[in-house]
Design brief:
By secondary structure, the chain is of the alpha+beta class. Helix content is 47%, strand content 20%. The chain contains 14 helices and eleven strands. Strands 6, 7, 8, 9 and 10 form a five-stranded antiparallel β-sheet that branches. A four-stranded antiparallel β-sheet has the order 1-2-4-3, with helices on one face. Strand 3 and strand 4 form a beta hairpin. The longest helix has 35 residues.
């Protein structure tokens, strides 16, 4: 197979003209015949013993051409693409332009190539990085959350209900003397202050005692979801059968010993403070990085083959399917539940895929422009890390995806370079609302 010409026909599109000379073509056809003859049946002949000329006379001279050409392409086209200096992002489209035993075969191969990215002004990007200062109040909030997680429900029988209690009650609602649908409940557990019932209901449950009937008088909101009830006055006949409240443990050293790896409250506070600082730092770093990434994506203005977005969307979709599978949910079940099909679900990933493709292309180009390098030691360490976190061996990684691992490291280094060169700016302050605007707003609310 010979490369006759390589012509750039459009942005990210190159056309190769390839020829298989007569001798090579004849050898390929003969090999195709030998592979297929064992499956060819013909009266008077045993399988595998039918002469090639008889096969070609019976089924047509070109009966083995497709197999022969495909075999040659699979074996030699990758080398010719590399010789042409092309980096393909999609399977090439092959068109047979001529074929004969005397002259061999001529083919046109249309290649979609990786785009050339032109990116400048990636140094000095500006982004906000706000890292919240951790206060004693933040630490106290975490301690109170720990208290609540270890709280226990205690029954109450010697007092009336209070806001924050959970009551078990029966109730039935009436419009006048007529009970209405959906207004009845038995042994219903209602946390007072949760806002589960319409406004005014829970406040009137407060102050009542066990097994003593009482009434709650309320008015349904004008915007209530059931139009027939909206704006109506109602009375609920109620009786409480049980009262419980959360009893929080004391925040002391004994509590700390029981619920953590520490011996004293001060040690726990220090640990909480440290972890909150680490968390806020990570959040600030991530927010800063996301802002830089968004700007890098916007800097990419070169045309990119849509197939690259499609393939990335397919990869994201496959990742999602694997996550579903880990949860015991099949993709078919998910699609049925959401009412989507495969194409509409994939469409939801295309915007994200476009951003990820542009970002990677930009960072690959920056790494090239900045002469970023990955050392053998860094590559070895990354391969080892991947092997430890997966079910594949280091040898399998090296033989299958070593170039991808190297590129991933280059991209990461390029992003670090851009972040280090970025400028941290203060978050914009919100401008105070103009006095006349505030007045207008007030008027609109009170009208």
């Amino acid at each position: 197979m010979n490369l006759k010409s390589s012509t750039k026909t459009d942005v990210n599109m190159t056309e190769l003209v390839i020829e298989i000379n007569a001798e090579s073509f004849e050898n390929a056809v003969e090999s195709a015949y030998r592979r297929q003859k064992k499956n060819i049946s013909m009266p008077g002949f045993r399988k595998g013993k039918i002469p090639r000329k008889l096969c070609e006379k019976t089924y047509g001279e070109n009966v083995f051409y497709e197999d022969a050409i495909n075999t040659v392409l699979n074996a030699e086209l990758p080398g010719l693409v590399e010789k042409a200096g092309l980096d393909l992002v999609d399977s090439p489209r092959v068109e047979l332009t001529s074929v004969s035993k005397e002259k061999g075969a001529s083919l046109k191969v249309v290649c979609v190539t990786k785009p050339e990215i032109h990116i400048t002004e990636y140094k000095g990007l500006e982004a906000v990085r706000n890292e919240k200062e951790i206060t004693d109040e933040d630490v106290q909030n975490q301690l109170e959350n720990l208290q609540k997680r270890n709280a226990r429900e205690v029954s109450v029988d010697n007092r009336a209900t209070e806001m924050g209690d959970t009551v078990t009650l029966d109730f039935e609602g009436f419009f006048g003397d007529e009970a209405f649908e959906g207004g009845k409940g038995e042994n219903y557990e209602l946390p007072l202050g949760s806002g589960q019932f319409i406004p005014g209901f829970e406040e009137q449950v407060v102050g009542n005692e066990l097994e003593k009937p009482f009434d709650v008088n309320v008015t349904f909101p004008e915007n209530y979801s059931m139009e027939d009830y909206a704006g109506k006055e109602a009375v609920f006949h109620c009786i409480i059968h049980g009262i419980t409240h959360e009893e929080l443990p004391e925040l002391d050293d004994e509590f700390v010993k029981d619920t953590s790896e520490f011996d004293t409250l001060d040690e726990l506070k220090t640990d909480i403070h440290t972890k909150l600082e680490e968390s806020t730092k990570n959040a600030a770093d991530q927010s800063f990085e996301n802002a830089i990434i968004e700007q890098l994506i916007e800097l990419v203005e070169d045309p990119i083959p849509h197939v690259m977005f499609e393939r990335r969307a397919d990869a994201l979709l496959n990742q999602f399917a694997a996550q579903l599978q880990e949860q015991g949910v099949s993709m078919d079940m998910y699609l049925q539940y959401t009412g989507m099909d495969q194409d509409s679900l994939k469409a939801t990933y295309l915007e994200r895929a476009e951003g990820e493709v542009k970002l990677r292309l930009a960072l690959e180009q920056i790494a090239k422009q900045e002469n970023v390098e990955v050392t053998d030691e860094e590559l070895d360490e990354e391969v080892k890390k991947i092997a430890e976190s997966s079910s594949v061996t280091e040898e399998q990684i090296r033989s299958a995806i070593l170039d991808d691992v190297r590129t991933d490291l280059l991209v990461k280094k390029a992003l670090d370079l851009v972040k280090e060169a970025a400028v941290i700016i203060d978050a914009p302050t919100e401008e105070p609302v103009a006095e006349e605007s505030a007045d207008a707003t007030e008027e609109a609310v009170t009208e």
